[in-house]
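Quick note —
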Amino acid sequence: MTLHTTTRSTRTATRPSRSRRARTVAGVAGLLMLAVPLAACGSENDESGSQERVEALAELPDLNNGQQTEIELDPGFLEALDTLGLTPGVVGDAGLDGATLSFPITGGNVSLFEPGSVPNYVTGQIFHENSGLSLTAGDTVVKLANFNVDPEFSRVYGDVELNGDIVALSAYLFRLNGSTLQPIETDDAGNTVLTGSGVFVSDVAAGLLNDTFGTDAVTDQLQVGVATVTVGTPTDG
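Predicted structure written out below.
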């Protein structure tokens, strides 16, 4: 499924030259050096056992049946893509409803704390395998997929594919602005809902996209949208 903006720029994206493609592949391969597996997050702090442990309000240890993450796309993001001559689309199991992208949650775990009791009151990792976002200009297609959300460190990691070739795994793709996160809610089905986090292109992904599509217009200030994470709350029995 391809997402089309309401207006289309008359600008035609130029196909990257062979030398640019070579530089892009080399640059993207460097993302592997920047990839941070989620399992390693916070490992340096584990030695501080003298700190008092704060009890979580809720523990969601298994998100294998865990609903979805939605991103309400920012109009400025769509305008920026249109100006750059990029056509966004969805990958795998991702969905589109109006201006809302959705990615099924396929696993992970989440702990929820009382706001203010710890620096980041949502911790854990949330996996979204077999879904993602694509960006296309001419013959060049970049796919960002298999997102892993790390709410504690406000980062989203994922795999990068360029024209069918995997060039990076677990690269730092998006940053989250948790300062706008709204209080934890429960929907009518008993699911836990976290909404309000701004999703921005990371500096790593900005460099990748600029190199690939021959521009310098993508920055880490580009807001993709606002995220809503819905996770199934375990029930007894």
